[in-house]
TrEMBL record:
It holds the Pfam family HpcH_HpaI. It comes from the Bacteria. InterPro entries: Aldolase/citrate-lyase_domain, HpcH-HpaI_aldolase, Pyrv/PenolPyrv_kinase-like_dom, Pyrv_kinase-like_dom_sf. Belongs to the HpcH/HpaI aldolase family. Transmembrane segments: none annotated. One of its GO terms (molecular function) is metal ion binding. The lineage of its organism: Bacteria, Bacillati, Actinomycetota, Actinomycetes, Pseudonocardiales. This is HpcH/HpaI aldolase/citrate lyase domain-containing protein. Keywords: Lyase, Metal-binding. One of its GO terms (cellular component) is cytoplasm. SUPFAM superfamilies: Phosphoenolpyruvate/pyruvate domain.
């Protein structure tokens, strides 16, 4: 992963429209993550969203819906800069997903350079090299994953570690503000530092992102759907407040 010398801020893409990509790229996010896990996005739509991101010059990763090698290879062929893979609980899981992103003999990814990642056949060498350059990022979302974090991070080809705080809280039965939950996060942070791996997470607000910036290399803030909904609610609330005030003044 490319270091900016500061925490990188990104957001999730859940809506099936390239307009979301263009608007959020223009807003100044450092990177985007197309979310297949918590959205109805299919591979074709993801392909189009990745094309829009490339046109905007913003790096885009894909959070795949599962560890299926065919899904991982297809989104990489479509030009994803990397993949976030949910529910990686063991080093064996990590080796499986890394293998899915690499070409033989290092991995199991099918080789077909006449795709976007290979400039439609015009950059075969670049396509071949991409198997070593893409970012494979396991999401740690269970106590089992936290217990195995050092083994997961030590797998050759793991580019960073990512904590899914909501899933981790549900899986452990802990609240995100508890001391026990904070201890789990500290374990991951210590492992990432020892392994010299970037560490990422996701939050809902800019304030929360600022709080985590000193201890994380990349943070995802909100998503396109929530940003649209929040802006709309605030606009309607403001309009009604002004209308009510104007009516009272008459």
């Amino acid at each position: 992963m490319v270091s900016l010398g500061r925490t990188a801020f990104g957001t999730w893409i859940k809506l099936p429209t390239i307009d979301s990509v263009e608007l959020l790229a223009q807003a100044g996010f450092d990177f985007l993550v197309v979310d297949m896990e918590h959205s109805p996005l299919d591979v074709l739509t993801v392909h189009q969203l990745l094309g829009a991101a490339r046109g905007c010059g913003v790096p885009a990763l894909v959070r795949v819906s599962d560890r299926t090698p065919s899904t991982i290879s297809r989104v990489l062929d479509s030009g994803a800069s990397g993949v976030l893979v949910p529910h990686v609980d063991t080093a064996a899981d990590a080796r499986t997903v890394v293998s899915a992103g690499r070409f033989p003999p290092q991995g199991t990814r099918g080789y077909g350079p006449t795709v976007r990642a290979g400039a439609w056949g015009a950059d075969v060498a670049g396509y071949r090299a991409s198997g070593e350059e893409i970012a494979v990022i396991p999401q740690l979302e269970s106590r089992e994953a936290i217990d195995a974090v050092r083994e997961i991070g030590a797998v050759d080809g793991v580019a960073a570690l990512f904590v899914g705080p909501a899933d981790l809280a549900v899986a452990t039965g802990l609240t995100t503000g508890s001391a026990a939950f904070a201890a789990l996060l500290d374990d991951v942070a210590s492992a990432a530092k020892a392994l010299e791996l970037p560490l990422g997470t996701a939050v809902g607000t800019a304030a929360a992102a600022r709080e985590l910036a000193d201890h994380h290399d990349f943070v995802l803030i909100a998503n396109d759907a929530s940003l649209l909904g929040q802006a709309a609610r605030e606009l309607v609330t403001d309009a009604h407040r002004d209308t009510t005030q104007n009516g009272a003044d008459r």
